[in-house]
Amino acid sequence: MIWGLFSAAGPYKTVRADSKLKKDNESFSSAMTIADSGYSMENGECCLPCTPQEEKQIVKGLMGEAELHLKEGNLYYVVSARWFTKWERYVGQGSDDPVVDMQSSDSQDLVDLPGRITDRPGPINNSDIVENGSDGENDDLELSRTLLEGRDYVLVPQKVWEKLVQWYTGGPALPRKMISQGVFNKKQFNVEVYPLRLKLIDSRDDSEFTIRLSKKASLHELYGRVCALRGTEREKAVIWDYFNKYKQSRLVDSSRTLEESNLQMDQEILLEMQVHESYPSLSGQDSTGNELALVALEPSRTSLSIAGGPTLSNGHPGTSSLNTRPGSALNSGPTDIDDGFGAYSAVRRGERGGLAGLQNMGNTCFMNSALQCLVHTPPLVEYFLQDYSDEINTENPLGMHGELALAFGELLRKLWSSGHNTIAPRAFKGKLALFAPQFSGYNQHDSQELLAFLLDGLHEDLNRVKHKPYIEMKDWGGCPDKEVAEECWRNHKARNDSIIVDVCQGQYKSTLVCPVCSKISITFDPFMYLSLPLPSTVTRSMTVTVFYGDGSGLPMPYTVSVLKNGHCRDLIQALSAACCLRSDESFLLAEVYDHRIYRLFENPFESLTCIKDEEHIVAYRFSQEGTGKKKLEIVHQEKSAPDLLKGGGWKNFGVPLLAYLEDDSPSGADIELAASRLLSPLRKACLSSVAHNGKENGVLSEANGEASNSCNGQSESGSQSMDKIELESEDTLTQNLSLQLFLTDDRYSSRKPIFKDSVVRSGRDRIKIFLDWTDTEHKLYDPSYLKDLPVVYNKSGFSAKKTRQEAVSLFSCLGAFLNEEPLGPDDMWYCPGCKEHRQATKKLDLWTLPQILVIHLKRFSYSRYLKNKLDIFVDFPIHNLDLSKFVKQKDGRSYVYELYAISNHYGGLGGGHYTAFAKLIDDNRWYNFDDSYVSPVNEADIRTSAAYVLFYGRIESEMNVAAGGTSQDHTGS
């Protein structure tokens, strides 16, 4: 990936590393230009040619320039993420804007201690990502095969690499070329980090050699490289695709690419020498020259052999009147007739189909898992085992010209015709890479993402609608839901009509409500699968200190228990119950860093995962009457100890106070009055030891989940404190004003005295001031309540006990999916009433469900600061999943389902493994498909916490009376 633009593994976000410290430093304008400066060498080290900020600006400029001129053949260099992170930290020195968008798995590599100056990194060191060290030349250096972009390495353009080498020296250089992937209008640019590596076997002496070439290289280039390596004449050389040590097909010296020839990473190719001028095709022989026992599984019913049944006489598909691009499945050269370990030769009459494994082609377990689930979907099996050639749509610009459907259909037929053998899905993977470059290469991917692409691609390739009509959207205001839903479905079917729509698509009812004008918009949309969130039962303890925004009470810490993956509103609700928030009051959450308010959590739906255990969170308690008014933030400062070099100064301390102002442009006297009110609970004359000792009484007991304080009006300790606090009148406060207040800016970098008769104007929603604590303030007030702010969670050793996770019902996940929720800030809705984009609330309902229901459990969560996988056990029914109560359209159709396949994911992010469970309907038995290995499995063992994608088939109404109870009893919340 280059800055998150092109990566098969998906975008990576920068982990926040001391971003609060970085936030305060000056950022440099992107328009700034800096002249290159020379450098000299001294003691083997490069003299510093630029400041860190200048280095950063130069590199960002060069990266931006490269991004504007993307083209095939551009050079990029692989750089160790470990070294590059040190450089970013050095040139950033507090900037929150990364040069390259990346994510490191080593959090310790990214975190600096506050105030620490980051040293300049040493020479570039790529040794941690190179496998064979200094062996060989740079062109022969081998990258470790388990690297992930963003975690282990970054890619930088050639000019950036040259600058970095100029400044730091080091290496080794690891150049890689940019290639164009995809066909038709789906092309995109990728850097080929791992060129194709082939094992050349010379049949003359059985010697082996390694050849590295781009997968975009031609067979002509391959012949040139092999002949040069072995000193043979090109005219006499014959190279075979020797996949799995079988002669698959002869590789003809031509412009056809290695990718189009389905050559895979680390596979063998065989070099033979022509003895006679005429060299016969041996595609029907094994490596010893013996004839393979090729058995035609069924006669071809049409000239389109790949769709009507395999023709095995010579390995070539039949001709067809359909026109596709050269090299397509319909008019390509020899197909992989033996794409596995003797797939067709091992077929025995009467042997059960559907039990073949899929060979792992290099981190393709995600693909194998998804494919096994689809090829065991009964309606699809029935469809693709018949002649479907008439439904191939080669004209659909949204499809793959029929090639993806043909490749999938051929693979399905092999899997159902090969008994217990293993199939290598080379041809299918090759087509997949052409049309979905994000799945090319040999990185691990997501089986659900592949399923989504494949179902959509199969639909477009098999769309019976050759020319989609234009349908104008209507305003359905006032029409009955049933009438609107039926019209929307007719419109959808007028443009989309395929076997996938027939069996896999249902219909949502989506309701949007504008939060401003209350405009309601109802639409009915098709869906292919349900992506259900997992309402985690895992909780976390969070300690938050509550401050009174009107100075009516002392600050008090409260520890509450909330859902680990909850939202800020959940934390506010827990705090409200703990401290007995009145109905006319509200909370405003804030994070405090460096004794200042670093950020306000004003969006109640912001995830709690963005709040770390080591952070300091406060809740300011206000009357709801002040909501929307300008806020006053008071930052406390006191004299710092004299420094021999810098002398004395002022430093921040304690927790800032926050209040609402009555006037948007208050006077200095108004600000002093507000500050005095907030400080009034701290007046020493009004304090008692009882109040001080009650500071910790707001902590909830984690054993019983109940607060130790009472909720009768004020808390018990709070009421004792308030009994000792007598609020003075405004006149008394005004007479005793002695506060030294200074107006500051957004960055807290200036200090301007505030006078009583001055007017403070600010275009911001928050006025920030410094309060200097002189000897007078220390005599009048007790600042101890403002200090020692507790962290969200204090990790006390290793005594914490791990509790067993509770099961989550599938119905709970479905309920969470159907709950009303606001749209995200990046997904605003254009309200036709307001004529503005609004963060509307959205409510989904299930209107109709399809014959095949695919349910995706959202186990993976991604945010700017966190990647996470939830290994929660989801309690899903195997038999009689009754969803009738969730479906709004009551049309008498059965909505009871039976499970028949599961895509499983084991392990964590980046290092997991996919398998599949699938049921053979004919013999009513479950099997475990683990790449090449297939074994029976008991039905009782298929429900695990690894279940990721569930496949259900609808039970027709006459079959609804089934043995055992139905899932209607499990309608959990």
UniProtKB/TrEMBL annotation:
Gene Ontology biological process: endosome organization; protein deubiquitination; proteolysis; Ras protein signal transduction
A Pfam family recorded for this sequence: DUSP
Keyword field: Hydrolase, Protease, Thiol protease, Ubl conjugation pathway
Compositional bias ranges of the Polar residues kind: 706-722
Classification via SUPFAM superfamilies: Cysteine proteinases, DUSP-like
Class of enzymatic activity (EC top level): hydrolase
Lineage: superkingdom: Eukaryota
Described purpose of this protein according to its UniProt entry: Recognizes and hydrolyzes the peptide bond at the C-terminal Gly of ubiquitin. Involved in the processing of poly-ubiquitin precursors as well as that of ubiquitinated proteins.
Entry protein name: Ubiquitin carboxyl-terminal hydrolase
Species whose genome carries this gene: Manihot esculenta
